Amino acid sequence: MSKRVWPREIPCGRGEPGAAVAASAALAALAAVGGVAPAAAQDVSPPQLLERVEPEPPRGSFGPPLEGWVKVRYSVLADGTIADPRVEDVMPPRLDTRAAISAVRQWKFSPATAGGEPIDWHNNVSTLVLDSDDVPLEPSPMFAGAYVEIVELMNRQEYDKAKKQNEMLLERQATRLNEIGLAQTQAALLHLATSNVHDAYDAIRRATDPEVVTLQESELGDALQVRFAIEADLGHYERALETFDRLAAIRPPADDDPLKKSADAVRAALESDAAIPVKGRVARAPWSHVPTRRTFGFTDVQGTIRGLQLECNRRKTALEYAADVEWSIPQSWGACTLFVEARRDTSFTLVEFPAGPAE
Known about the structure:
Largest sheet: 5 strands, mixed
Structural class: alpha+beta
Shape: globular
Order of helices and strands: EHHEEEHEEEEHHHHHHHEEEEEEEE
CATH class of the largest domain: Mainly Alpha
Helix content: 25-40%
CATH superfamily of the largest domain: Tetratricopeptide repeat domain
Radius of gyration: 22 Å
């Protein structure tokens, strides 16, 4: 039997007996000195960007600009400045991210407020797209030739060799946004062919990122179908429906379309009171997830989970992992991202539960 942990406004922790009582007591103490107020009564507003500096696209080995993007996670402090900017993802992998981080440090915001008072605001992610009008939209002949060679290897089911060449293609020859999108879509198909659904998902998300245009419409439609199928399989139901909507805008489905029926099933599962199982795996970096529901626990852990980090708009905290425990995130913390730190190749199922009455 699992135990519920109701952290209220203090960091979440283990579900030992009395944890919920201790949390409530701490909440009362904070409220007594004005440290906590109900979210609805605080009139909370997020920060607003005032000034954004963009980095210049770096030059490639042969002179033309190197296109790509950098996703940066950061906090906006109560004085409107940036704190703790760090790279969450970068494409292509060899792209120097120092200019992007330097640019983000110069951004200015009007700060978030609660009850009219400035506050720190965490869990911000922005994508800096490095593109250039001087770079053609279509792939270079060198890239296209290498891409076709990999397709031929895939047709012969020489997947290990195809994977190595695809990695080299992305690391050494992908210098344009369209090339990155094609290489990542190809990587996703290779991972699916070898039953590596988690790496496939990472690749197809990069290829179809709504903030970065890398694929032509027909290419994007095919890639979005792959993304929807993976998200539905892994339990990312909310993202799957967003992907389906993007796909439907390109290719409106008929009522009897199997994809539409799958989307309807995902929507029904999301709207039901049933638990939602989300499959996760830690590779090199911590696994991140934006919870659909605010109460969650873990099961089917294969490996070692070392700890959890929760980054919400109004709170950042470490959670001490323990088996058979459920955590519940207070609504007043705002939108959150969960990070799972674990031994490499640890897999697990994160189970999201409907909100309990105490929440």
